[in-house]
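Encode chain A's predicted structure.
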Amino acid sequence: MNVRRSAAVLAATVVIGTATPAVAAAPSPSPSLPSGLYGSSDPTYDGVWRQSLTLIALYRVHAEPAAAAVDWLAGQQCESGAFPAFRANPAKACDAKLMVDTNSTAAAAQALSAVGGHGSAVTKAVTWLKSVQNKDGGWGYTPGGASDANSTSVVIGALMTQHTPVSTIRNGAKSPYDALLKLSLPCADGGAFAYQPDKKGKLTANADATAAAVVGALDQSMVSVKAGDKKNAACTDAARPTPGDAAANGSAYLAKAVAKDGHLTSALPGSENQPDYGNTADAVVALAAQGGTAAASGPLRWLERNSAKWAEQNGPAAYAQLILAAEAGGADPSDFGGTDLVKQLTATGPAPVTASQDDSDTSVWWMVAAGLAAGAGVGFLLSSRNKRKQP
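Encoded structure for chain A:
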């Protein structure tokens, strides 16, 4: 899945090579926010990203989003199939001045696949992503940019919507997994993943990239990520490492990174180290995807105790990240350290049609159908797993 930094944050990291504050002040409100959009801050750099994460999080807790929210996201797509970070005037055709990116496109594809009814839009988005695949098998933030672990991993999630083995999506001989393996470090350097090589080709361990890449290497996505059953063992170098080997090593790196304080740490030049809430939430997802809920319990409990203020300051994407972490880690999103994350998230935008915040797998719509059937004298109760909607 990797719920990683917003498209705007990732773009800034590529350009200036710095991380963002772990707790950032909320951006200035936009003078006129589009109807259907979640959040009250300027969507210029993260509108599609935060809307996509919100819809995915609502899907994960069995909530039916408002039609206006889905329509807003679908309306951001360009004719090419790509998505920009934000399209101020959807009625105007996309032109060369509007920058589209792989992260927004891949996240939107996953979100529209989850809500259903947008199969053509999802297919167009994935087709565009395939068309800009790099020769090393991966993707950069912008088309043609150097491949990075974060972008490649979120695109893997989008590719999975087409029910085609990711290993078969290639540019020449290279698949997305080849790109991730190229960014994995040996155990002598911690076994983590790098974001991308520096100008000299050197790889540096990056916790955010590692959390994203673990999920991608395990062939999972934001929509489908679930607790795994593989042990988070010590890092082990293999003669010919597989994506699974790299995921295990990356998970071992994350487990060690959160062992002392229960969270990942972020530092800006000239400032003191501080907790990195967003990347800690991503690490929870990665640790759970590899080793199950027990492997993620430490940082998940830390988030339950400490993340409320951060989420309030950062809005929909932050609440969505916490919901995804809670879901993967086996916690209750409706009572996360005393906070109802689902309620807080839905309060930032148009209310969802329905929401189920208990632990039941029963579909609300099946329950309605059962009630109607009972009223007609059939007298039966339908109870089943709420099947995921396919495009």
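Confidence is low (pLDDT under 50) at residues 1-31, 355-391.
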